[in-house]
Amino acid sequence: MAPLSKSAIMKAFIAIVLSLFLYTSTYAQDPQLFENTWYLQKVVIDGETFFPPHNSEVSNVRLEIWEDHFDTVVCAILFGEISNVDNTSITAFAIGATLLDCNLQVNYIFEGIYFGFYGNLPV
């Protein structure tokens, strides 16, 4: 077997570097997910649309995502760990919530619908 030339080695090295670059850029998490506070506009479940309340108790429903966890707030805080984040989905586990109650019934009802989207929680 003849030894590889310097140009063949360089071509192989460049191919490996380009492959790694394309892989990391394709599967990298979008930094905008972590640099912003997100505000809920609506929840759609089985074709039914629910809008977040806006009143003296709830001015907005926010969601913050970090690389390994998230939290969102209506009256109580819903939080959890994240194992995967990409531009189309978030895989969360170990979800829990604080026991803060909403005083206004409209907020309490919406919180149950919104937090229920994340799973069966004792909120």
Which structural traits does this protein have?
123 residues, alpha+beta
Describe the structure.
The structure is a single chain. This protein is an alpha+beta fold and 123 residues long. It has a single domain, classed as Lipocalin (Beta Barrel). Helix content is 31%, strand content 28%. It is built from three helices and seven strands. The protein has a five-stranded antiparallel β-sheet with strand order 1-4-5-6-7. Strands 2-3 form a two-stranded antiparallel sheet. A hairpin with a 4-residue loop joins strand 6 and strand 7 (90-97). The chain is globular and about 35 Å long. Residues 9-15 and 17-28 have low confidence and may be disordered.
Write the layout of secondary structure elements.
Blueprint lengths: L5 H22 L4 H4 L1 E3 L3 E3 L2 E3 L11 E4 L3 E5 L3 E9 L4 E8 L7 H12 L7
Antiparallel strand pairs: 1-4, 2-3, 4-5, 5-6, 6-7
CATH class annotation: Mainly Beta
Taken as a percent bin, the fraction of beta residues is 25-35%
Shape: globular
**CATH 2nd-level architecture:** Beta Barrel
CATH topology: Lipocalin
Average pLDDT, all residues: 75
Low-pLDDT stretches are 9-15, 17-28
**H/E element sequence:** HHEEEEEEEH
SS elements, strand count: 7
- Roughly how many Å apart are the termini? 70 Å
Structure annotation, total helices:
3
The largest pleated sheet is described as:
5 strands, antiparallel
- The structural class is alpha+beta
The tally of structural domains comes to: 1
Strand line-up of the largest beta sheet? 1-4-5-6-7
What fraction, in percent, of the residue positions are helical?
A: 25-40%
Using only C-alpha atoms, the radius of gyration works out to 22 Å
